[in-house]
Amino acid sequence: KMALQLLLRLAFLRLTATATATAGPTVQERGFRTLPAAAWPSHFDLNWLPVQETIQIPNNGSAPLLVDVQVFVSNVFNVDILRYTVSSMLLLRLSWLDTRLAWNSGVYPRRAVTLPWDSLWTPGLTIQEALWVDWQDQSPRAQVDPDGHVELYLALTTETNCDFELLHFPRDQSDCNLSFYAFSNTALELEFRAHAVNEIVSVKREYVIRDLKTQVPVQQLVPCFQVTLRLQNTALKAIIALLVPGEALLLADVCGGLLPLRAAERIAYKVTLLLGYLVFHSSLVQALPSSSSCNPLLIYYFTVLLLLLIVSTMETVLLAALLARGNLRAKGGPSPALRGERQDHRDSEPNPEAPSRRAKGSGRSLAEAADHVFFLVYVVGVVCSQFIFTGLWMWATCKSDPAPGKAVPHGGQPRL
Ligand SMILES: *[C@@H]1O[C@H](CO)[C@@H](O)[C@H](O)[C@H]1NC(C)=O
Ligand SMILES: *[C@@H]1O[C@H](CO)[C@@H](O)[C@H](O)[C@H]1NC(C)=O
């Protein structure tokens, strides 16, 4: 808003200047503020000039004006990984020297005066990553001391976009940038020197700030300073709510392999597990963010889990079908008396090891042997998949694709 007003004012000035100075030289915005009064056309109304002069940027010879910025980060209250945004509350303390505002303290003995921000030059700041910025004080006041040191406090709440690195979600850590630009001045007139102070006292947060840095990018056309927040996810919730149920389901599925293939409950058991897992999976996929590159490893992990459960259920169904076919064939062959005998023995003696039955139950023992082998392979596969994932979790890093604005030859920031 400040920047807008300043711009409006400037635009208005230009308009007046060009309208009244048709005969004079064309007035350029940059030369404008250092233009001596004598250069103005004689019929130009000079009455406003002393007033307007104080809202032009203070001159520091050939060097840019140095503005000292202290950034107090007082809260980071909403980290939304699904929308890739982070909300924060900051307090900026800007200080610079404007000798035009100095006064003789012998004549006017005061330690400091307070001036409305629009009566003097202040840098207009724009945050590049912001979705919205709420400047809490619409008309902040600046403190000026007798030497002309100006001090201005700006409190703001902002929601900014941040590319979280979620590969290791829920143990992720990301750097989020807040780039402050002063678009109404050029880098030749204005330079920032920034420091950041972490003033967060609240600990009841999923994401905590592990580090806070500021930097002033070099070779920018527009004066700029950047605040980088290093956010770390400390939440146990995702581990408790996602990993534990997933592991428990997998374990339950492995245990289901211990049920005899002939028991009808086995298919019911596995299908129930699979159904339960599908419900869990769909809610999980909604809870995890996705992106064009570097998706969370957990998404792959849970998909592999789903595939394992499906394979184990299909194995049970197929071998049960084989067993049923073997039974049918066996039922067709032997005499009714023998069949009845076998029927009697089935419940009391589940292990068909008797040599008399081996010929008839060949299909069955084949199915059971296959089931046994599959069970061993499955257990080994499950254990291996867990180890592979642990290894991936520890060693995997992900390099995001280059940003579209930086990849194309004509994208990116303009450079000096
Ligand atoms: C003017 O520029 C010099 C050199 O960069 C710097 O040391 C000094 O602090 C600046 N003065 C103001 C008022 O910014
Ligand atoms: C933040 O800014 C730094 C320095 O300009 C840059 O190297 C880094 O890639 C930026 N980080 C993000 C997440 O944009």
Automatic annotation (TrEMBL):
CDD domains per record: LGIC_ECD_ZAC
Localization per Swiss-Prot or TrEMBL: Cell membrane
Membrane topology according to the record: Multi-pass membrane protein
Chain segments annotated as transmembrane: 238-259, 271-288, 300-324, 373-396
Record domain Neurotransmitter-gated ion-channel ligand-binding: where: 57-205
SUPFAM superfamilies in alphabetical order: Neurotransmitter-gated ion-channel transmembrane pore, Nicotinic receptor ligand binding domain-like
Basic and acidic residues: bias regions: 339-349
UniProt KW keywords: Cell membrane, Disulfide bond, Glycoprotein, Ion channel, Ion transport, Ligand-gated ion channel, Membrane, Receptor, Signal, Transmembrane, Transmembrane helix, Transport, Zinc
One annotated GO molecular function: extracellular ligand-gated monoatomic ion channel activity
Region (Disordered): 331-362
GO CC annotation terms, alphabetical: plasma membrane
InterPro entries linked: Neur_chan_lig-bd, Neur_chan_lig-bd_sf, Neur_channel, Neuro-gated_channel_TM_sf, Neuro_actylchol_rec, Neurotrans-gated_channel_TM, Neurotransmitter_ion_chnl_CS
Catalyzed chemical reaction(s): K(+)(in) = K(+)(out); Na(+)(in) = Na(+)(out)
Annotated Neurotransmitter-gated ion-channel transmembrane domain residues: 259-327
Predominant location: membrane
Signal peptide (residue range): 1-18
Its biological purpose: Ligand-gated cation channel that allows the movement of sodium and potassium monoatomic cations across cell membranes when activated by zinc (Zn2+), copper (Cu2+), and changes in pH. Could also transport cesium.
Family per record: Belongs to the ligand-gated ion channel (TC 1.A.9) family.
Protein name per UniProt: Ligand-gated cation channel ZACN
Organism: Suricata suricatta (Meerkat)
